[in-house]
Design a protein that fits this description.
Length: about 525
């Protein structure tokens, strides 16, 4: 796990000599163990290394392919790299290191871009083709690792964080109004947008190629590759058994590491399942970490997590997270996110990784389980849409005659979900903080006029149309959430707040095989009669 940055330019463009150095140094926190650079007439690649697999200098990046035609700088971990390495060895490749990086770059030499669909892991990859003078970027299929870029007039700047792009001092810092409009509704920008005009995110499952003639984006994986199953095609007992098997395999794969591995244990279903399988397959004593907080009314997860840790025999550590220095922590999170971001759960996650970073560089965590297996109430509300519509219409009537703040708040929060017949708007409004009126009204009239040119629901409308072939709205929302809220909010939060401390978080629920299977399951297996089904 690391951080990358770099540029592609045509030969007639001149960059500052220290631009790449500054950009790479800006993400020192992502890779405190080593730094590396590659520069020629058209390209510069910078890399900061967090040593996880093959701690020796042989794992240094940027790294050449076997025939020296290709150069790679990449951020991530490939959990099936040993299987791919075996196939390449059979094809005649000899390896100089034990790193997954060498497997990826030799795999690209052998298969070309087809290597990306073979990778089961988390990654943001940059590869330079010396012969064809072409730069290739790619991002993992679920968007666990971020990859930003800015393109103008045969110059492309890219990196793991926005600050690497700004370090070149070439980008005019202007607000992207579409992204800002989205931020007002959700607390973060959606899809490829960032709050910086012109700076984009490569979408999950996409690659980008650029040379002197053109820049092209393509997809190596998308949700449409998954076939939705009906009740006639799979029994519930089969779904339960296969889910268990796939999660166990995912956890086992993600234990590969040359440094200690731990787990963030909340005592909930997702982290407890990961802990159970990890203790079964980890060859050392698994370290588990749980946190209590002196904020959030003093609530903590320690008692339940302690029971799970005792049952599975982990080396358990309890942490008490204090919010006394919260102002400085918020400032640090502003630095690490680079743009406004409203999920305050990044603060305890940052504090937890700050406390474990000297003890454990790799942490397993349960992100993705709720989106894949319908853990949020909105799926259950949507499955009983008409009944809930009646309830909240009734509450809206009651708020006019009953002096209850609770009724008023609930009516104002949820009634807008049911006041439109457009299901695409329903999907978006489940995640907005509704007030009386709209958030645009908080601004002066001259700024408010700009919002008439943007649409905060556009991303949801576009993705909902893509998934129009699915059998029902609950299934559609499940798939949409893995395309939008998961990468744009939750995985963004995890990456920035943990890599700020040089800690790698792995997410077994987002294993390739488990994701494809979970997406394929009928929504009625996950939400039964308006209630979630726990596997």
């Amino acid at each position: 796990m690391c951080g990358i940055t770099g540029y592609y330019k045509s030969s007639d463009i001149t960059l500052k000599v220290d631009g790449l150095l500054k950009a790479t140094d800006a993400i020192r926190h992502r890779g405190p163990d080593d730094a590396g650079y590659y520069v020629d007439d058209n390209v510069g690649l910078g890399h900061r290394r967090l040593s996880i697999i093959d701690l020796s200098p042989a794992g240094h990046q940027p790294m050449n392919s076997s025939n020296s035609r290709y150069v790679i700088a990449y951020n991530g971990e490939i959990y099936n790299y040993l299987e791919i390495r075996e196939k390449l060895t059979e094809a005649g490749y000899l390896f100089k290191s034990q790193s997954d990086t060498e497997v990826v770059i030799n795999g690209f030499e052998y298969w070309g871009k087809a290597i990306f669909e073979k990778l089961n892991g988390i990654f943001a990859i940059s590869i330079w083709d010396k012969k064809d003078k072409k730069l290739i970027l790619a991002r993992d299929r679920m968007g666990v690792k971020p990859l930003y870029y800015w393109h103008s007039h045969n110059l492309l700047l890219f990196g793991s964080e926005i600050k690497t792009i700004l370090a070149y001092e070439l980008v005019n810092k202007k607000i992207d109004l579409q992204a800002f409009h989205e931020f007002l509704y959700y607390g973060y920008a959606l899809g490829e947008n960032t709050l910086f005009s012109g700076i984009k995110k490569l979408l999950p499952g996409q690659y980008l190629e650029i040379d002197e003639n053109e820049m092209v984006r393509g997809e190596f994986w998308k949700h449409q590759f998954v076939k939705e199953l009906s009740f006639n095609e799979i029994k519930e007992s089969e779904a339960i058994a296969k889910t268990k098997t796939l999660l166990e395999k995912a956890v086992e794969r993600q234990l590969v590491s040359d440094v200690p591995v731990g787990v963030f244990l909340s005592g909930g279903i997702d982290s407890s399942a990961i802990t159970a399988f990890a203790t079964k397959h980890y060859k050392r004593k698994l370290k588990s970490y749980s946190a209590g907080f002196d904020f959030n009314r003093g609530n903590n997860e320690l008692p339940l997590a302690s029971k799970v840790a005792k049952k599975f025999g982990t080396e358990h550590h309890e942490m008490m997270i204090q919010g006394k220095d919260i102002e400085n922590i918020i400032k640090k999170m502003v630095f690490h996110h680079d743009e406004p971001f409203s999920d305050a759960a990044n603060i305890p996650l940052y504090l937890m990784t700050q406390m474990v970073k000297n003890d454990c560089k790799v942490i397993l965590q349960g992100d993705g389980g709720d989106e894949l297996f319908a853990g949020y109430p909105r799926y259950h509300i949507l499955s009983k849409f008409n009944q809930y519509k009646f309830i909240f219409n009734t509450l809206n009537t009651l708020k006019k005659i009953v002096p209850s703040n609770y009724i008023k708040q609930k009516a104002e929060r949820f009634l807008p979900l049911f006041q439109t017949s457009n299901s695409q708007i329903h999907f978006a409004k489940f995640l907005t903080e509704e007030l009386e009126g709209s958030p645009e009204n908080l601004f002066k009239e001259e700024l408010n006029a700009n919002f008439q040119m943007t649409n905060p629901f556009k991303r949801y409308q576009d993705v909902a149309k893509e998934f129009g072939f699915l059998s029902n709205n609950v299934q559609r929302l499940l798939w949409i959430d893995t395309r939008i809220i998961l990468p744009d909010q939750f995985l963004e939060k995890v990456d920035k707040s943990t890599m700020a401390n040089g800690v790698e978080v792995r997410v077994p629920f987002l294993d390739n095989e488990l994701v494809s299977f979970a997406l394929s399951l009928p929504s009625e297996m996950k939400v039964k009669n308006g209630r979630k089904s726990i596997y």
